[in-house]
Structures are given as structure tokens and as C-alpha cells.
């Protein structure tokens, strides 16, 4: 994904199914991160380390995006679960945009908030559960867990 004095944009590093149209926001985040690397680092080891971190974050974001898309495809025939999973995406996107506009981008770590202290892990856990297509009480528990994950974003932080 990167090397000495070069780096791929996320859209070149990995292609995720267009179901959620994630290519544009991933690429815009990547451009912003690469500009930051160029502005704050020198030409030596500091820049190489920053590019390696860029590659790690980009891979993490591609991975979590793939996990959510896989969960959505696994539940295409279950409208309620599909809808709830979709809300994870839109909650993360809306929250991220709101805190960036308020000048608090540190509250929105990474695409789909994958590095958010509570939401990121919950999104991944919900996606992992959803790909198993739970039924009965397990399905209800998944829907409730997704709802709780979304509520962690209320008012900019965790809800007790």
C-alpha cells in the first residue's frame, strides 16, 4: 500500500463492493491523511513511519468496511436486520460529519468510526454476528445490540 516516497489511495489499495458507496469517503479521508503526512513530516524515517501508519489505518478501514458489507449481503432477505445494519453505516457517517463540522474531529476516529472506543468494536461485533444470520432470540439480541451501538454516539459520546 505504500513504499519509499509513495502511497496508494484507499480506492487503489482495496475495492469494496459499491453497496454503501464507500469509495469516495475512503478516498477523501486518504487524501487528507496523505496531505497531513506531507505537511508534518520530513523526507526521512519520520515520513516512512507516517506512511506505514497511513497504510495500517487504511487497511483497518477497508477491513471494517468489508465486514459491514458482508453482513449486509448475508441479510439481504431479512429486511429488519438489513435496515439495522444500514443504520450503523449512516449513524457513523452522520456522527463523523457532525463532529468534523464542530471542529471536534478527534471524536470520530477513522472511517465507520472503526477506532471509536465503543462504537468501533460494537460495529465489528454486530457485523460478525450478522453474517451468521441469527434466528429467534439471537436475531432479536443482534437488533438490540445494533441499537445500543448507535446510541453510544448520542451527544458525542458514550451513553451510560
Can you describe this structure?
This protein has 160 residues and is an all-alpha fold. The chain has six helices and two strands. The chain has helices at 10-13, 23-40, 45-74, 79-101, 119-130, 136-151, and strands at residues 2-3, 6-7. A two-stranded antiparallel sheet has the order 1-2. Helix 4 (79-101) runs antiparallel to helix 5, helix 4 (79-101) runs parallel beside helix 6 and helix 5 (119-130) runs antiparallel to helix 6. The longest helix has 30 residues, at 45-74. It is elongated and about 55 Å long.
Quick description:
With 160 residues, the chain is mainly alpha-helical. 64% of the residues lie in helices and 2% in strands.
Q: Key features?
A:
160 residues, mainly alpha, two-stranded antiparallel ribbon, 6 helices, 2 strands, elongated
Secondary-structure map:
Blueprint (H helix, E strand, L loop, with lengths): L1 E2 L2 E2 L2 H4 L9 H18 L4 H30 L4 H23 L17 H12 L5 H16 L9
Antiparallel strand pairs: 1-2
Helix pairs in contact: 2-3, 3-4, 3-5, 4-5, 4-6, 5-6
Amino acid at each position: 500500500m505504500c513504499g519509499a516516497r509513495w502511497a496508494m489511495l484507499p480506492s487503489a489499495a482495496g475495492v469494496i463492493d459499491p453497496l454503501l458507496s464507500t469509495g469516495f469517503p475512503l478516498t477523501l479521508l486518504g487524501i487528507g491523511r496523505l496531505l497531513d503526512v506531507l505537511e508534518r513530516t520530513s523526507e526521512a524515517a519520520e515520513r516512512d513511519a507516517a506512511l506505514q501508519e497511513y497504510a495500517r489505518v487504511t487497511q483497518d478501514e477497508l477491513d471494517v468496511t468489508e465486514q459491514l458489507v458482508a453482513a449486509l449481503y448475508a441479510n439481504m432477505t431479512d429486511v429488519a436486520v438489513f435496515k439495522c445494519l444500514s443504520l450503523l453505516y449512516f449513524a457513523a457517517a452522520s456522527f463523523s460529519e457532525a463532529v468534523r463540522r464542530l471542529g471536534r474531529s478527534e471524536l470520530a476516529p477513522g472511517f465507520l468510526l472503526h477506532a471509536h472506543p465503543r462504537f468501533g468494536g460494537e460495529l465489528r461485533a454486530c457485523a460478525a454476528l450478522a453474517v451468521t444470520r441469527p434466528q429467534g432470540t439471537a436475531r432479536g439480541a443482534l437488533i438490540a445490540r445494533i441499537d445500543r451501538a448507535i446510541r453510544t454516539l448520542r451527544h458525542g459520546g458514550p451513553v451510560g
